[in-house]
Amino acid sequence: MSYSPTPGMGQAMTPGPGEEPPPLPPEYLVRRPRRLRSHPALRRLVRQTQLTRDDLVLPLFVVEGRGVHSAVSSMPGVFRESIDRLAETCQKAEELGIPGVILFGVPEKKDPEGRQAWLPEGLVQRAMERIASAAPGLLRIADLCFCEYTDHGHCGVLTPEGDVDNDATLENLELQAASLADAGAQVIAPSGMMDGQVGSIRAALDEAGHLNVPILSYAAKYASAFYGPFRDAADSAPAFGDRSTYQMDVGNSDEALREVELDVKQGADMVMVKPAMPCLDVIRRVRERFDVPLCAYQVSGEYAMIKAAAAKKWIDETRVMIESLTSIKRAGADFVLTYYAREMAKLLR
Ligand code: PBG
Known about the structure:
By secondary structure, the protein is of the alpha/beta class. It has a single domain (51-348), classed as Alpha-Beta Barrel (TIM Barrel). It has eleven helices and ten strands. Strands 1, 2, 3, 4, 5, 6, 7, 8, 9 and 10 form a ten-stranded mixed sheet that branches. Helix 2 (83-95) crosses helix 3 (123-134) and helix 4 (166-182) packs parallel to helix 5 (197-207). The longest helix is centred in the middle third of the chain and has 17 residues, at 166-182. Residues 1-10 have low confidence and may be disordered. The structure holds ligand PBG. Residues 143, 145, 147, 191, 227, 230-231, 236, 299-300 line the site of ligand PBG. Ligand PBG binds at residues 143, 145, 147, 191, 227, 230-231, 236, 299-300.
């Protein structure tokens, strides 16, 4: 067996004049992981994580009006659109091969309870109907929460002390879920982090005859600073305080497993970890413990950071987009909600 040490790396082992060469490479060079990286085609063969268009869900913001297509300044490439423009966007998303969209309504009228959220003629309800005819093959997911609908910007009804009243909010979530499913939402995604929300929504959906409408639960949703740009887009920043009495503390991950367990017991068909890149460890732990489909939300702040750094030419946007989405999948997510869905789908075409 002949052995020539890699120049540089094997220097110490190079035989001196008159010395016998060592019969075998040093132990640390018997396995050379670089062999499997030596050819692009070989790298393709051994790559474990593949992104496909089937991994993508596109979040969309809907507003009242006609012909509205207004840019969200902190999220380049993201728009708030009236229903007519949204329908066109959905058609294009379907053509790109994106499986689904998740809708956020930004209503004009707000009140302390967020009543616009469950009106049969509500903004998202009308949008659902329109998308169903414009892009019938696209899965219509409805985000279920009140922060866009309440005048105080919290995710439910308030107690006299100004905290969110969990159980009173559940009743409203039931109304909202049934109303959206009636309007053609095909997946209900509660994001308010109220205790018991999955169970009560499941019961309400079943009661309304929507036995086959699955629940995608935002099971482990952190009180994250990465939602900042979303709150501009959805006009949903809390008027006072923050969301730390209902969203999870960033320092915890055992708690995420308890949250997921509760939601699965209450009937969640799919669960979500949010945000994504700051929570890759949580995604991995949930993946290892539970066998329900798991997704992650690459949230507004993650997107905005990439966009901002790319605009300064500090990073290569396309490569960072691919790397961030691949990492989220590698951590264990089956699919990803991402504002990059269109750009990524174009690349994967
Ligand atoms: C709540 C909701 C939020 C996001 C999705 N659903 C905001 C919040 O909890 O304040 C954030 C998504 C993002 O940042 O992209 N309805």
